[in-house]
Design goal:
- This protein has 271 residues and is α+β, with helices and mostly antiparallel strands.
- The protein has helices at residues 25-32, 113-127, 154-168, 195-203, 235-270, and strands at residues 49-53, 61-67, 70-76, 80-81, 93-100, 139-149, 177-185, 188-191, 210-218, 223-232.
- Strands 1, 2, 3, 4, 5 and 6 form a six-stranded mixed β-sheet that branches. A four-stranded antiparallel β-sheet has the order 8-7-9-10, sandwiched between helices.
- Helix 2 (113-127) packs across helix 3.
Amino acid sequence: MPFDTKRINGPDNTFSYRQFIDADKDEKQKKAFTGKRSDNRELLDHRKIAVQLNAITKAKGSCYIENGNTKIICGVFELREIAKSSRYNDKGQLYCDFKYAPFSRETRKSVTENEEKSLATSIKTALESLVCLHEFPNYQIDVFIMVLEDDGAVLSTGVMAAGMAFIDASIPCFDIITSSTIAFIDGIMVVDPTSEEEDIANSTNPPENHGTITISSLNSMDQISQVIFNGFIEPQLLKDAKKQLLDINKIHETYLKKVVSMKIIKEHRES
């Protein structure tokens, strides 16, 4: 076989890409967290959440939620038949669209389309345990989520926004879904991290005892609908985080039930 003279050979010498990396960057990020939080919360304190239903008048159901400075709006629209389906589906399907508003992350790097799709998939998976999809054979429920301001714990806040939007739309659900996030920085547990704390937890190298974990649960049914974990954390720390997250979810559930009760009372008075 003749030698291919058109082939472009690689260079004789190569250089490690590590020489172009700021070696002190991760150490700087480690030192950026001193145990004191920018909003003066204790490490195990969760930010206050606020929920408003029927935030989008043209939607079948909607929810606006604030978790500290993280602000998300969610809309659920009329059911429609599953498109391009060649067979009958005994259960309904969920479609979740997740987007960041262009102004939601002014001081942080832009979000790629793949990141948005990944978050949409995670929220959709959590919601599939919530909605009574067997009630809607061959139909699809569309959920649209928009992040108006990102200051951390976007995934857990988005899950609760979508769950409350379903309730506002009077779509049958097994329970109220709640969700919360914990970050680990050098093995320190940080409840409901801000965007800055999440960045530190997820970008440290080597990632030992650094990362984030989000748990969504249906508390009345004693069921965990989803666990999302990034990083490397020792098993005992994960066990402690699980207990802490489930306790927080129960607190969220108490508040969300009050919101639902107020909705029912308001509808009863109007009727």
